[in-house]
Amino acid sequence: MTSFQTSPSDAAPPSDAVSPRDSSPEQPTSVARLNQTIKASIDRWGAVWAEGEITQWNRRGQNVFGGMKDLVSDAQVSIQIWSSVLRRLEGEFQVGDHVVACLKADYFTKRGSFSFQVTSMRHVGLGAQLEALERLRRQLAGEGLFDPSRKRPLPFLPNRIGLITGAQSDAEKDVLRNAQLRWPQVEFRTIHATVQGDRSVPEILEALATLEADPEVDVIVIARGGGDPQTLLGFSDERLVRAVAAARTPVVSAIGHENDRPLLDDVADLRASTPTDAAKRVVPDVGEQRTIVSQLRSRLGTRVQQQVQHAIQQLEQLRSRPALRDPDSMIRGRQQEIYLSVARGREVSTRLLDAGERRTGELRASLRALSPAATLARGYAIAQAASGSVVRSADDLTPGTTFTLTLDDGAVAATSDGEVPSIAPRAEK
Q1: Residue 311 contacts by C-beta under 8 Å, 6 or more apart in sequence?
Q2: Could you give the CA distance from residue 27 to residue 32 in angstroms, rounded to a whole number?
Q3: How far apart are CA 49 and CA 264, in angstroms?
Q4: Domains of the chain listed by start with CATH number
Q5: Packed helices 126-142 and 238-246: angle between N→C axes, nearest 10 degrees
Q6: Which residues pair with 66 in a beta bridge?
Q7: Could you tell me how far CA 419 lies from the centroid of its own chain?
Q8: What are the residues facing 53 on neighbouring strands?
Q9: Which range among 2-6, 17-21, 233-237 shows the weakest confidence by mean pLDDT?
Q10: Residue 18 burial (CB < 10 Å; 0-12/13-18/19+)?
C-alpha cells in the first residue's frame, strides 16, 4: 500500500486512491477518500427544518455544542451553533426548550464525525405568544397600571419580608443570604411556589393572597433566577399582573432577566435586576446605616459647635460696645443735659402759670363787670312775666298780673297793683 503524508483536516485524498464504489480486498480505498466521498454525498443534502427538544446546551468559548431529541421517540442528533449564528438568535435557550431549528448536515473528515450545524433556531409558538403579550402590555399601559405615580415606596426597614420563590432555588438562597448579610435581624416569611409551567400562576396568586393577609408583612418579593422567554411567560399572566397592581403591600419583582422583561416587572412597585439586587434594595445595609448615623452625628456636632462659636463672638462684640462696657457713662453724659432740661421746663412752666393766673384774673374781672349779678348786687332787680320773658316796661304789667322778681340773693313772686305815682316818670325814648 502506497504511503503518503496527510495535509490538515479535509485534505484531498491521493489521486491514485480507488473510489469506494470500486474498492476490493485487493484494491481498498483510503480512509481519506472514503471520508471525502461521504462528505460530498452529505453536502448535497442541503438544509432542513427540524422540531425537537434541546437535550444538551454546552458553551465552549463563543460557540455552543449540544443535542436535540425527538418529541416522541428517543432519536437524537448532535448540533453545533457557531458564534456568528448565536448572536443572531432571539431569546435565551436552555435544556428542555421546545424549538424548531434549521439544520445543515456536516461531516468532519478528519475524525469521521457527523453532526448538524444550526443556522437558525426559535422557540415553538413563542412568536404568537409574544405578540399577544405585547397587546396585553399596551392594554395595561393604557389603563395606567404601569404609571410610576401609582407605585408605592418601600419601607425603610420592613418588619417582615414576604418571599415567593421556588423551593430550594438559587433565587431563595441569594435573597436570604444577602439580606441577612446586610441586616442580620431581618425576618422572612417564605412561601414556595412553582415558578414555571401551568401551575406557576395559581400557586403564586395563592401565595400572594396569603402574604397580603399577613399584617406583619411589609413588603413582598417575587423571585426567580432568570430563564428563557418561554419559561417566564407565567410572570406576564394577566391574572398575576392585575393581582400585583391591586395589592396593598408593596411588591418587588426579582425575575432576573434583562432582555425579555415580563409584565410583572412593569407593574411591580420596584423591579430588581436579580434576586441579589432585590435583597439589597429591600433591606438597608446595617454597616452603611451606622456610617450614615456617624456622619450625621459628626455633622451635627460640627454645626452645633459653629453655632456656639458664632454666638460667643456675637456676645463678645456686644460686650465690647461702650454702652455695655461702661453703662454709667451714658448716665453721666446725659446728667447735665437732663438737669438743664428740667430747669428749663420748670422755668417755662412757672412763667406760663403766672401768665395764666393774670389772664384768669383779668377775665374774671371783665366777667364780673359784665355779669347781671353785679347789677343785682347794686340793688337792682329783674322782673319776669309768667311766660319767662323780661318785663321791660310798666305797661307790660296790668294790675293783678303775677310776675317773678329776681334779686341779688334770690327770686320772689309779686303781683302788680298798677303804676306807683311816686316813682318818677320814665324818660322818653
Answers
A1: none
A2: 15
A3: 34
A4: 45-124 (2.40.50.140), 128-284 (3.40.50.261), 375-415 (no CATH)
A5: 30
A6: 57, 79
A7: 116
A8: 69, 98
A9: 2-6
A10: middle
CA distances from 296 to 155, 293, 390 (A): 21, 5, 102
Q: How far is CA 423 from CA 196, 256, 395, 418, in A?
A: 149, 143, 14, 12
How confident is residue 17, by pLDDT bands cut at 50, 70 and 90? low
The C-alpha atoms of residue 4 and residue 31 are separated, in whole angstroms, by 12
Name the burial class of residue 47, with classes exposed (0-12), middle (13-18) and buried (19+) by CB atoms within 10 angstroms of its CB.
Answer: middle
CB proximity list for 1: less than 8 A, separation 6 or greater: 28
For 380-400, write each residue's pLDDT tens digit. Answer: 888 888 887 888 887 778 888
Q: Tell the residue number behind the cell numbers 416587572, with chain if given.
A: 265
Whether the per-residue pLDDT at 81 is higher than 90: the answer is yes
Place of cell 415580563: 262
Do residues 162 and 251 touch, judged by C-beta distance below 8 A?
Answer: no
CA dihedral of residues 357, 362, 367, 369 (deg, nearest 10): 140
Q: Higher confidence at residue 13 or residue 341?
A: 341
**282 neighbors 178 (Cβ within 8 angstroms):** no
Neighbour-count burial of 285, counting CB atoms closer than 10 A to its CB (0-12 exposed, 13-18 middle, 19+ buried)? middle
DSSP string, 52-109: EEEEEEEEETTEEEEEEE-SSSS-EEEEEE-HHHHTT--S---TT-EEEEEEEEEEET
- The Cα 257–Cα 273 span in angstroms is 7
Q: How far is 223 from 240, CA to CA, in rounded Å?
A: 14
For residue 353, give the C-alpha cell: 402759670
- Paired with 121 in beta bridges are 101
Using alpha carbons, list the distances in angstroms from residue 103 to 83, 89, 355, 395. 15, 14, 135, 160
State yes or no: pLDDT of 151 exceeds 70: yes
With both helix axes pointing from N to C terminus, report the angle between 170-182 and 275-282 in degrees, rounded to the nearest 10.
30
DSSP secondary structure string, 307-367? HHHHHHHHHHHHHHSHHHH-HHHHHHHHHHHHHHHHHHHHHHHHHHHHHHHHHHHHHHHHH
